[in-house]
Amino acid sequence: MDKTYEWLMRAARAIRENEELLTDLDRAIGDGDHGANMVRGMDAALEKSEKADNKLGAAGMAIMSVTGGAAGSLYGSALYEASKHLSIIEDIEDIKLLCSIMLQRIKALGGAEAGDKTIVDVLEPFTNALNDGKGFGEALSIAEKALRMTKDMVAKRGRASYLGERSAGTIDPGAYSIYLMLKSFEDLI
User: What are the φ/ψ torsions at residue 27 (nearest 5 degrees)?
Assistant: First the structure.
């Protein structure tokens, strides 16, 4: 059974429920708009994908069209790219493929690597864990630990990198939002 739209609804709800936290994290090391941008993007993704045949593609295009900052191009482009290879999400194999494609696209667009204090710091260990045969729960636990580790990192990409050493001490907002999206698969598959 196709669970793509249900995942998008859960992810949008998680982002909405954590908008203030995402904003606070971004205010500390960025321009303070990550929460609002992600809510706007996920709301548009839900609206455009609800009746679309290719829900991931519609969600990706919607996010790119309304989400400001790097998040719009990274999340939107990653979902859109995944939609070229994956039409629906039904099982853990689909999640592996989705995450692998999203990771490749985000790394290619942003030039980030693990340790740069970005989305990649959570998405890559989660994806690697799944691809190494670990179960969803263990992969999510690894992602949560990776998320906490971004607090002590010095940003090397994005707006936070302008702060240099002062970017340490705050969890990366993009890493947090991707964690929320990944956690939204919990008990779904």
Answer: -65, -35
**Cα angle for residues 180, 177, 111 (degrees, 5° grid):** 130
Q: Is residue 69 scored above 90 in pLDDT?
A: no
Q: Would you say 117 and 155 are in contact if contact means Cβ atoms under 8 Å apart?
A: yes
Q: What's the maximum distance between 2 C-alpha atoms anywhere in the chain?
A: 47
Helix (H, G, I), strand (E, B) or coil at 49: helix
pTM over 0.90: yes
Query: Mind listing the domains of the chain with CATH numbers?
Result: 4-183 (1.25.40.340)
**What's the CA gap between 57 and 34, in Å, rounded?**
22
Separation between Cα atoms, residue 78 and residue 29, nearest integer Å: 24
